[in-house]
Amino acid sequence: MTASATDKLDAFIDAAAAALDLPLDPAWKPAVKANLAVTLGHAATVAEFALPDEAEPAPIYKA
Amino acid sequence: MADFTWSSGAEIAAAVSSGKVSAAEVTAQMLAVIEQRNPRLNAFTAVTAERARAKAEAIDASPDKRKLPLAGVPFAVKNLFDIKGLPTLAGSKINRARKAAAHDAVLIERMVAAGAVLVGALNMGEYAYDFTGENVHDGPSRNPHDPERMTGGSSGGSGGAVAGGMVPIALGSDTNGSIRVPSSLCGIFGLKPTYGRLTRARSFPFVASLDHLGPFARSVRDLAISYDAMQGYDGGEDAACVDRPAESATPFLEQGLSGLKVAVAGGYFRKGASAEALSALDTVAKALGAREVEIPQAHRARAAAYVITATEGAALHLERLRTGANDFDPAVRDRLIAGAMVPSTLVVKAQNFRRWYREQVLALFKDCDAIIAPATPVTAPKIGQATFMLDGVELPVRPNMGLYTQPISFIGLPVAAVPVPLKPLPIGVQIIAAPWREDVALRVAHALERMGVVAAPRPRL
């Protein structure tokens, strides 16, 4: 991740914590950021795999 | 009096049923071993001695004990199962404030109905978000083959209790590998059934769309008899439990490999594996005459499982993160907070991929009955070890021990984990079958056991 991307992640974490009403001790932030970067990396690995628009998500609600 | 403390559950049930030994005597022996070994292995967080003695006496007095497949067999459960009279900890400090459970988990009720004797609750990683078996509140579960090493997790106490000869059978949960990882590191057998096969009613959840419950044992027969005892629809108490008749696996164990085609997973499942993991896999593959097959996009499956776990886990714990964040294990808390922040669009993408991947993998079972793969990339690391080298890259232990288990549970396939007794430390192999074919996985496991290729080594304790 580039320096500007990690700066954006810092801003995103602050905004998300505020929006979600999650208390975030500054001492926790480096670990939260490291975990979020790993998870977003995994999410990108999944999202870059092209699937048709008709691809259904796995959980199907049954009425 | 004969010593039953390293006997299998099947041997104990046969001896109790025939009157060769009383359930009370077996229970007394097992409680004594727990008292002696648990201070070193830290597998139990509660011992239900009074309840166990009462149940054993009831078995001994029962005219039906000959009909009970688990007559007098001691067992213990990961402490995320409800046990009547105890708060359900799920490895946490926070849950200690919960009310005592009013009823046992349904799977405990079914084990007990089959004659089994509950002797206690077992240590686990906090809220099951862990592959190490370490716990900041209760201390680490310790590996019976080397107490300075990890049991693996998150069902660490389940692995340690069975491998350490404190119970022949334990129950645990597996969201991404939490039955298969400790089975591998502790050198025992574990069964993660098909998603939806065994009810999770009255157990503490982690990731609803990935959580499974299942047994650990030192023999395949014990996995099969306990699994058979726990099958069956629960009337809808667990939304994921499928209304499907029980399909016993035990009667098919002795059928051997005849008519079964086994494949071995290549590509992703060899990358990063240690020499020990590859040696174990190759030994099992050779014994089964397995040909190589590629599970497509396994790395993306693992990535998608990671995303779904982080976000569903965070959703489960969101309110606790708001009001009691300081009471979490810091390592769990920081992962959960990060999971709460993942955009929902990416989670939906992961669920889209999940259905595509399921179709690809199910197609492989048109040409084979089972696929084998490593259970863990390495043998048990030292307790406290934060990183390991996989394929020349230094990676954190905690999230990466499940590299090979995550792409399989992601689509709910049944898996028997079998131990290859390498020295000085054992390591496991996964036997993966098509959905609802636990019987195939257990048959292959039993054939390997009979060939002497897999076995639960007895630790020197």
For the record, give the distance between the C-alpha atoms at the N and C termini of chain A, rounded to a whole number: 43 Å
Structural class of chain B: alpha/beta
Strand % of chain B is 15-25%
Shape field of chain A: extended
Helix content of chain A: 55-70%
Q: Helix-strand pattern of chain B, N to C?
A: HHEHEHEEEHEHEEHEHEHHHEEEHHEEH
- Stated plainly, the CATH topology of chain B is called Amidase signature (AS) enzymes
Structural class of chain A: mainly alpha
Q: Portion of residues in helices of chain B? A: 25-40%
Largest interface: A-B, 32 and 38 residues
Report the CATH C-level class of chain B. Alpha Beta
Separation, N- and C-terminal Cα atoms of chain B = 21 Å
Integer-rounded radius of gyration of chain B: 20 Å
Q: What is the name of the CATH architecture of chain B?
A: Alpha-Beta Complex
Give the rounded overall mean pLDDT of chain A.
Answer: 91
Q: Could you name the ranges of chain B where pLDDT drops below 50 across 5 or more consecutive residues?
A: none
Count of all domains of chain A: 1
The number of distinct β-strands of chain A equals: 0
Give an overview of the whole structure.
The complex is a heterodimer of chains A (63) and B (461). With 63 residues, chain A is mainly alpha-helical. Chain A has one domain (3-47). In chain A, 59% of the residues lie in helices and 0% in strands. Chain A has 2 helices and no strands. In chain A, helix 1 crosses helix 2. Chain A starts with a helix and ends in a 16-residue tail after the last helix. The relative contact order of chain A is 0.11. Chain B is α/β, with parallel strands linked by helices and 461 residues long. Helix content of chain B is 37%, strand content 15%. Chain B has an 11-stranded mixed β-sheet, with helices on both faces. Chain B has a two-stranded antiparallel sheet with strand order 4-5. Chain B has a two-stranded antiparallel sheet with strand order 12-13. In chain B, helix 2 (23-41) runs antiparallel to helix 3, helix 5 (156-163) runs parallel beside helix 6 (180-186) and helix 9 (298-324) packs across helix 10. Chain B is globular, with a radius of gyration of 20 Å. The chains are: A mainly alpha (63), B alpha/beta (461). Chain A binds chain B through residues 12-13, 16-17, 20-25, 28, 31-33, 35-36, 38-43, 45-47, 49, 51, 55-59, and chain B through 209, 297, 299-300, 302-304, 306-307, 310, 318, 321-322, 325, 330-331, 333-335, 337-342, 346-356, 358, 399.
